[in-house]
Write a structure and sequence with these properties.
This protein is mainly alpha-helical. 44% of the residues lie in helices and 9% in strands. It contains 13 helices and five strands. The strands form two sheets. It has a three-stranded antiparallel beta sheet with strand order 1-2-3. Strands 4-5 form a two-stranded antiparallel sheet. Strand 2 and strand 3 form a beta hairpin. It starts with 14 loop residues before the first helix and ends with a helix.
């Protein structure tokens, strides 16, 4: 496998976030023309779905593996050999990543996707990055002062807070009976920036706060009713998030599993046969695990300095 960077994003219900990522990937390969990038989601090669009416007949989910890339800012589809003369430089069957990267570098014009395909994809990406601004919505929310201060420093936290509220369950709501982190008596009016998707998720949820929480709503005829309603929902999302927090991964003695980067680090070790086939739970496995945790904690501590 050539040197590479891999990422994974949970875009939830907001498809525009997914396409903004596609735009960023395209631009990265344009700025760094020696890079090749591929992107897929839970539907597989979703870029091909956008240009489904223009695709060659041979291209399907089975034949597209490792053939669809962004390269030099353009959309590329590595073709299959059409005649014996092409076989020496164009392998049959499923390509490996090294083969695909080599073909893109040596035959970029041959691998360039047909113009109708590129136009269909270009139409979907048209308007970025300015388009992302039109996808934002600002709303007044009557929220605890702690949340207002937090959002001023970390406006990105509005997304996980809305998600926590949107996906709440009865156990989550138990933490919202007392509101020990964000008491309702500290509420202030604040302007909060959402994506349109997040705003819709918050607004459309029917919700009545527990009487013990201290949150109450004014009459629906009140001019600030919507701000109060949005604020209650957002406050519940933040309180649920805080209730799920354990000791911070940066604190001394905190288990490495609390660090969101640990899972990826451990998977990388397993992929590279770090444990040498040792059975999980064996003395040698535990020793190797302790060494890995120690190295990870030291690396994390250096990064945070």
């Amino acid at each position: 496998m050539p040197a590479h960077i891999r990422g994974c994003t949970n875009f939830g219900d907001n498809v525009e976030d997914e396409w903004f990522i596609v735009y960023l990937i395209q631009q990265i390969t344009k700025v760094f023309p020696e890079l090749a990038a591929r992107i897929e989601d839970n539907d597989g090669e979703f870029l091909l779905i956008e240009a489904a009416e223009c695709l060659p007949k041979w291209l399907n989910p089975d034949s597209s593996t490792n053939r669809v890339f962004f390269f030099q800012g353009e959309f590329h589809i590595i073709p299959v050999p059409r005649n014996p003369a092409e076989t020496p430089w164009l392998p049959k069957g499923t390509l490996t990543i090294p083969q695909a990267v080599n073909l893109l570098s040596t035959h970029p014009e041959t691998c360039l996707a047909a113009e109708p395909i590129r136009k269909a994809l270009g139409k979907r990406l048209k308007g970025y990055p300015l388009k992302i601004q039109s996808n934002l919505h600002r709303a007044h929310c009557y929220i605890p002062a702690g949340i207002a201060a937090t959002l001023k420093l970390r406006p990105d936290l509005v997304a996980p807070a809305v998600l926590a509220f949107y996906l709440r369950d009865p156990i989550d709501l138990q933490a919202c009976r007392t509101f020990s982190t964000f008491p309702p008596e500290t509420r202030v009016m604040a302007s909060v920036t959402f994506t349109r998707c997040l705003y819709a998720q918050l607004l459309q949820q029917r919700f009545t706060a527990d009487r013990r929480s201290g949150f109450t709503l004014p009459p629906r005829s009140h001019p600030k009713f919507k701000a109060h309603e949005l604020g209650i929902k957002l406050a519940h999302g933040f309180e649920i998030m805080c209730s799920k927090c354990t000791k911070r991964s940066s604190e001394p003695g905190a288990p490495v599993c609390n660090n969101p980067l640990w899972k990826g680090f451990l998977n990388s070790l397993k992929k590279n046969d770090y444990f040498k086939g040792e059975l999980e739970g064996s003395a040698r496995y535990k020793e190797l695990m302790r060494m890995a945790e120690s190295f990870f904690q030291q690396s994390a501590a250096i990064t945070q300095r």
